[in-house]
């Protein structure tokens, strides 16, 4: 029986292979394959607990002694920033959201490189929940049929996080809306004045859509609609 003892740890996360040559008295030789297991890498996914900016989440992982870890540049989206720290054989990946999520739950990934010999890259999943915010006081309003007639205002809710820019990208020809762009402050409702610019002579009510585009600091855009009905 031949006993083989490893002299050093395997610094990588993949198995490494070596061979031992055994020479016999009769001149024959035998090759014995030796496999040293790699270091097991495991890291959980990160779920941010809120949809707003500035929220952090983290996961830990183990890595071989003497190894470091780094985030792979460009491997993650603009709505969060990652950082890695290593303390002994434990690494920590920390995620900080840079932008509020104004839409549905979103998921992305970030790559972490284990600097061993050779290097290995692992992908970790990050999830940010939906904000669930109501953008408007009402998503439908009514206006009068006559030119200059008034009606309901459009209200952008104070529940929309601060620092979100918005603009009107489309509206019906029979109304004007003022202002047509702005930035939310997250504290106060913003009331937009709606006025009739074209009389309704069709004899029946007509509807149109005011389409708003909200843009988060990370460049993500969200189009939202308010329906306008002009009386007959």
Brief synopsis:
The chain is mostly beta strands and 232 residues long. It has no helices and 17 strands.
Describe this protein with a few key phrases:
232 residues; Immunoglobulin-like
Question: Could you explain the architecture of this structure?
Answer:
By secondary structure, this protein is an all-beta fold. The protein folds into 2 domains: 46-128, Immunoglobulin-like; 140-230, Immunoglobulin-like. The chain is built from no helices and 17 strands. The strands form 5 sheets. Strands 10-17-16-12-14 form a 5-stranded mixed sheet, with no helix packed on it. Strands 3-9-8-5 form a 4-stranded mixed sheet, with no helix packed on it.
- The helical percent reads under 10%
Largest sheet: 5 strands, mixed
Distance between the termini: 99 Å
Order of helices and strands: EEEEEEEEEEEEEEEEE
Secondary structure: number of strands: 17
Please specify the SSE layout and strand pairing.
Layout (H helix, E strand, L loop, with lengths): L15 E8 L5 E8 L9 E2 L8 E7 L5 E4 L8 E8 L2 E8 L8 E10 L4 E9 L11 E4 L10 E3 L8 E6 L4 E4 L2 E3 L6 E7 L9 E10 L5 E10 L2
Parallel strand pairs: 3-9, 10-17
Antiparallel strand pairs: 1-2, 4-7, 5-8, 6-7, 8-9, 11-15, 12-14, 12-16, 13-15, 16-17
